[in-house]
Amino acid sequence: MDEILSLLPGYNCGSCGFKQCRDFAAQLKSKDDIQRCPFLEREMFMDNFEKLSELVSGTSSAEEAKIIGVIDGLEADFMLAPLKDECSCREFIHPFDGSVEINVGDFLRYRPLGCPVTHFAKVIDIDPGIYTIHMVGPLHRLGRDDFEFKDAGLCMILAFEGKVSRGKLPKVGQTVKFVPEYCMMQKVHSGMVVGVEGKDVRIEAIDLKVW
């Protein structure tokens, strides 16, 4: 128990429902229990979170199920799930064809550079030349024949924002391999982590041609 206690923030703030961190440490049995402490999801305590997870589960990270890309057989560091109450991870794309007029709310057909699959997405925000989208699927997933869209053509994928749902939480500045949960091919992507808040991450410098 002393080892677990040494990894807790030690603020005795009561946010977890216990008066002291010592009382909280005594009842830890799973990762879900650990998440009751709001401070352990902050970047400065990420290493402690991982060590506590190993201690309370009785397993090491190496013993956990590996995340393997289906199409390429590569091992990923984590699975990336949508942010809370969103339908897919946020993607930030740049169409090579700048002549297409795109507005918030439009549906796009596009193909990410480095991916053989045509995607469909809804535009949720716009910066000059950069479109934030939620992917809504390849067409067969939509289940409708009257689907109207604009053809954005070949696009560069600039960034992802999502939540780590399985695997090791990354640190800012770390180059990572990850699999978006909704990716039809379950293909390993790579990029650099530029933001971490709890389990929410932003990954830039995206490369779909991972070797």
Automatic annotation (TrEMBL):
Organism of derivation: Methanolobus zinderi
InterPro entries: 4Fe-4S_dom (IPR007202), ACDS_complex_subunit (IPR051069)
PROSITE patterns membership: 4FE4S
One Pfam match: FeS
Sorted UniProt keywords: 4Fe-4S, Iron, Iron-sulfur, Metal-binding
PANTHER family noted in UniProt: ACETYL-COA DECARBONYLASE_SYNTHASE COMPLEX SUBUNIT GAMMA, PTHR36214
Name of the protein: 4Fe-4S domain-containing protein
Keyword Repressor among UniProt keywords: no
Gene3D superfamilies assigned: Electron transport complex subunit B, putative Fe-S cluster
4Fe-4S domain ranges (all copies): 1-54
GO molecular function: 4 iron, 4 sulfur cluster binding; metal ion binding
